[in-house]
Amino acid sequence: MAERSPEGSGTPSHVDIPEYDDQELTPEQIETDEHYDAPISDAMAEQIREMISHEIVKAQEAALPHIIERLSKTMAQIIKEELDQKLMTGVTKTKEPTYKDFSVCQPPTFSSEQDPFKSHRWIQDVEGANALVKTMRSDYQRKNLIRTDEAGAYEN
Fold first, then answer.
1. Separation between Cα atoms, residue 78 and residue 17, nearest integer Å
2. Looking at residue 24, what DSSP letter applies?
3. Which stretches of sequence are listed as region Disordered (predicted)?
4. Which of residues 92, 115, 135 is at a domain's end?
5. Residue 97 in contact with residue 133, Cβ under 8 Å?
6. Is the pLDDT of residue 19 over 70?
7. Can you tell me the distance from the alpha carbon of 32 to that of 29, in angstroms, rounded to the nearest whole number?
8. Between the chain's N and C termini, which has fewer beta carbons within 10 Å?
């Protein structure tokens, strides 16, 4: 059926494929071909849709563990790369302000009035306090970084 290549590599160089005879049809194929263009009822169409949706659900449920496994491996790899990069550079992410930092600025309290102008003003004041906290935090971190750099310069 298959001839071996002359080099003796074991891989076939030619494969004979039997010819397909269009005249040899099984009884199921003949029956299907006769009713190929026949209209189907709405109930039958609904059953077909339901069967297809069940098969799709089965396929998705079967594939889900593999997808989750691949996703978790990818996430673990990304996290590992980021940690390695941070350890190599020695740079850490800046710390986000906490509620304690925010409350030190004494933000305005909401008086639960139904006036939209007062509510809008309150939102602006709170956003301003939040921006102030972030500015204070970044200034503090910048000063500490400068102090650390100065201390390193004096050590040399």
1. 48
2. -
3. 1-36
4. 92
5. yes
6. no
7. 5
8. C
